Amino acid sequence: MPGTSFFKNLLPVMLSYLLLLFAALALDYLLHIGGLGWVGRYLGIPGTALILTSFIYSLRKRRIIRRGAPGKLLAFHEEASWIGSVLILVHAGVHFNTLLPWLAVAAMMIVVASGHFGKYLLKNSRESLGDKKRLLMAQGIEGEELERKLFWDAVAVRLMNQWRVIHIPVVIVFATLALLHILAIFFFWNWK
After folding, report:
1. Residue 180 and residue 100 in contact, taking contact as beta carbons nearer than 8 Å
2. Is residue 50 within 8 Å of residue 84, measured between CB atoms?
3. In 3-state terms, the chain is what percent helix, strand and coil (to 5)?
4. Which residue of 33, 58, 89, 111 shows the fewest CB atoms closer than 10 Å?
5. Which of 104, 101, 106, 122 has its CA nearest to residue 165?
6. d(CA 61, CA 55)
7. Is 58 in contact with 98 (CB distance < 8 Å)?
8. How far apart are CA 51 and CA 90, in angstroms?
9. Cα 91 from Cα 109, distance rounded (Å)
């Protein structure tokens, strides 16, 4: 049924991304209303810590560490990086002091988007391939003919499995910009 995939898969992804932006605005607003706007300046630290901690999933996936259930670690990766991103957005606020932090925030938002939408596209392409395979098998198509009819769909799924080719380089850009921002903070900090 057309549109079902949109409501089942894409809409929650879009809402999660929009909720991230809304949560950051709401938290920033509440801090300012409560006279605690200065707290936002320090939320970059726990935000960064959460994002760094979320990479346990990547370490497990690459077998650098052996402990932890991959499914649970993926859920933790998604949740910790989402919350960390909210905290970093509040930390960034709407202060246009320098370009470097804004480049880091822009890269972070691209990473979050590529994570959200990459997951959706991969899931959707796998489901589409499975649905088409079941439909063709129900029509009595088997063997080589089935493989031939599913060839391009299977190629699409294999390509979607490579979405990390985009996600990982953007993560590296974000990490580099964030590290440069952190180093600049320490360099220009008034240590007296």
Report:
1. yes
2. yes
3. 85, 0, 15
4. 33
5. 122
6. 10
7. no
8. 15
9. 14
Question: CB of 160 within 8 A of CB of 125?
Answer: yes
Tokens standing for 68? 């932890």
SS (H, E, C) 168-191: HHHHHHHHHHHHHHHHHHHHHCCC
**Are the C-beta atoms of residues 93 and 40 closer than 8 Å to each other?**
yes
Decide: 56 and 65 in contact? Cβ < 8 Å. yes
